[in-house]
Amino acid sequence: MNKKEMTADEVLHILSIFREVGAKIWIAGGWGVDALVGKQTRQHNDVDVAFDTGREEKIIEKFESIGFIVEDDARPTRFVLRHPDGREIDMHPVVFDDKCVGKQLVPGGKPFLYPKNAFTTGIINNETVPCLTAEQLITFHLGYTPLEQDKHNMKMLNQYLNIPLPDAYR
Fold this sequence. Notes:
By secondary structure, this protein is an alpha+beta fold. It contains 5 helices and 9 strands; from the N terminus they run H-E-H-E-H-E-E-E-E-E-E-E-H-H. Strands 1, 2, 3, 4, 5, 6 and 7 form a 7-stranded mixed beta sheet that branches. Strands 8-9 form a two-stranded antiparallel ribbon.
């Protein structure tokens, strides 16, 4: 199956579906970077979403009702909601503690942490959207060999937000 380009309009439509089920979500990945810089800077094949696991069952039910299928299921770390038309939502479940600190669980490894200050808003097509902060997105880009799209993301954060580049991206 070919991946379909994930356009800004598609991202906004997907966000409206999350709102319908009362899900707390934050855009991550490349669309998160583009939301922070306030414009689309490259083509995207998916949208990455960090979400509060409290509504996970409702999220899956709703997306399955409109044709998406759970695939690449590596829960509790991540899974993909994939539509037959090629749209993909890369889902990152986050469990919050009583101090509002989030953890994305990693079997056999240290969890990814989402501190209280890891959440902000950005702009997609002149609409304010929830997303992760630049600092949080940078943290997630460390510890592996970056792909070209990762290098692009870091360059955009540096260029538009004056965020220093990590050593791996210089």
